[in-house]
Amino acid sequence: MRVLSLNFRKALFGQESGEVPIFLLTITHPDLPEPIYLTTDATERLGTDPLVYGAVSRGVTYLYAGVEIMLPDEQDKSPPTSKLIVANVGRDLIPLARSVNSPPSVRIETVLASSLDVVEIEWPKFDMSNLTYDANQLTFDLTVDSLATEPFPSGTFSPAYFPGLF
After folding, report:
1. Is residue 126 one of the residues assigned to a domain?
2. Is residue 1 part of a domain?
3. Spatial contact of 27 and 38, defined as CB atoms under 8 Å apart
């Protein structure tokens, strides 16, 4: 069970709210020299030449990009899946996405615009897979390693496996 702050719950459940939930994405891969930090909201102007917007959370600068996130579902029988859609504004992302051989990892965090340093929700690292793209956008499927959903302990005490117990 997640514990959410009162301000976050008010923003989610209120009929009207001045609070804006923001998603922060951290994309990592061994082939990248440093992680890519993206945000879904242009909270503040970070530079004027070129014009750059973004957000600063916990000392890390997240760049604003036209990012859409379909939040992970929570099914009992399958690992959570999600979608990440990135606007291909600069046309530089397709060669970058094609150049990696193994799937990059993505960490998704949710914060409020009024308190960027307080992480309200954090999902486990997702693997980016199934890239589809066109001239306008890149779409990735985000999946969790299925080992994260394996039952523990792995064996079950059932009549089929342990008839002497029943």
Report:
1. yes
2. no
3. yes
